[in-house]
C-alpha cells in the first residue's frame, strides 16, 4: 500500500448518451505520479500479473514505470493502452513491448496499433503478426461480436454474451478485470477472455461505473447465457 499524503485522486466525468455510448473528460491525479521511491516499496512475487494503463504510460510517470518493469523479475505486465495509445512514442512502445506484456485493445485501438506498427488492420492477420513480431499475447475486444485472442500457443474468437446495453462505462476496464481474474486463477487465455466477456456483458447492462457482478449474480448471468446457447 502506497500512502500518498499530498495530492488528490484523479477523476473522470462521464457523459452517457441514450444508446449507452459515452464521452469522458479525464483529470489526472496521484495515480499518475508514480516515482522511484513508491516503486521501490513494492514487493512483487514471481509470477505476478501487473496491470498498467495507457493513461499512466503516456504521462510523466511512464518513464519510471517502464524502468521498473525492465528490472522486476518474472512478472507479466497486462496493459490496456486505451485512447492514449496514439500518445506513446515509438521508442517508449518498443521498450514496453520488450517486456512481452499481454495487451488488450478495443477495435479502434487495434487499428491505431496496426497502422503505427505497419501491420494489416484485419484482426486475424494483425493479431497473428503481432504475436510473431513481439512474442507477446494480444486481446482485441469487438464488443457484441466477442473478442479475439492471440498467443504463441493458440488463437481464436470468444463469443460475446447477450446483453441489452444501457451504459458502457467501465466495459473495457471490467473486461480487463475478468481476464486478469481468469489468468490469476491459472486459466488459459481463451477461458480468461470468456470470463472477461461475461463480466463486461453484465456491466454494460447496468447503469453506473461500479457494477461488476458478485459471484452469485455472475453465476446466474452465465447460466442464462448457457441456456440460450443450448
From TrEMBL:
It comes from the Bacteria. Residues 7-210 form the Carbohydrate kinase PfkB domain. GO terms for cellular component: cytosol. Keywords: Kinase, Transferase. It is an enzyme of class 2 (transferase). One of its GO terms (molecular function) is 5-dehydro-2-deoxygluconokinase activity. Its EC number is 2.7.1.92. This is Sugar kinase.
